[in-house]
Amino acid sequence: MNNNNIEIVNPPDNKLSYNKICEEWHKFRKNSVINKCVADFAELLCANGDILDVGCGTGQPIAQYLANRGFHVTGIDFSAEMIKKAKALNLANATFIECDFFDFQSEKMFDGIIAFDSLWHIAKENQPLIYDKLASMTKKGGFLLFTHGNRDDQTIGTMYNQEFYYSALPTEKVRELLTCAGFDVITLIENYKEKTTGDRDLLVIAQKR
Ligand SMILES: C[S@@+](CC[C@H](N)C(=O)[O-])C[C@H]1O[C@@H](n2cnc3c(N)ncnc32)[C@H](O)[C@@H]1O
After folding, report:
1. Domains contained in the chain, CATH given
2. Ligand 1 pocket member 100 (CB < 6 A)
3. Which terminus of the chain is more exposed, N or C, with fewer CB under 10 A?
4. Is any ligand 1 atom within 6 A of the Cβ of residue 130?
């Protein structure tokens, strides 16, 4: 993300944009290698545990990988087209729900929550609210993995000829919000790099106290 912290008056509609690029995204993600950080996260969780995948996209490769490992996966995404693709996988251990993150209500608490490349799409004014919401759905001792930006920022980017809105808070603010929400930070890496995928400004694994 660029350091471009100006007011964005008419942000692009991310839901619409993701619906429009769904076919291209599907082609890209269906053959993606699973990130090492996702495999490491799975190792932290109890066998057959419940996982929430926030902004699950097409369910590939992350929800599919986790479901095939025997976890019970609930994937949520506000793009109807993404959820259609995810449901078409017919994964025995996974349920996919078309829903905005902040509207999602769950009776069950999760052993693990993963939000891979999705939280940076949440409006700047709602960024401080993310971690209490995640904490409210995480069991005591449960784990959270997410990627994010690492600067006080909001910006517009382009993917497959569609515009997308992004925002982030400074890393130290994210750390403070996580702690206040009841998470202990286990791993926090800025400029996280993996051989198989692009770089990420921030990778966090945290555990609920
Ligand atoms: C960059 S994609 C990542 C998808 C998936 N996690 C992956 O690794 O392929 C971001 C996803 O987050 C979803 N998303 C963005 N904001 C959301 C929100 N407020 N509620 C639910 N889903 C959201 C988008 O529809 C999109 O599928």
Report:
1. 14-208 (3.40.50.150)
2. yes
3. C
4. no
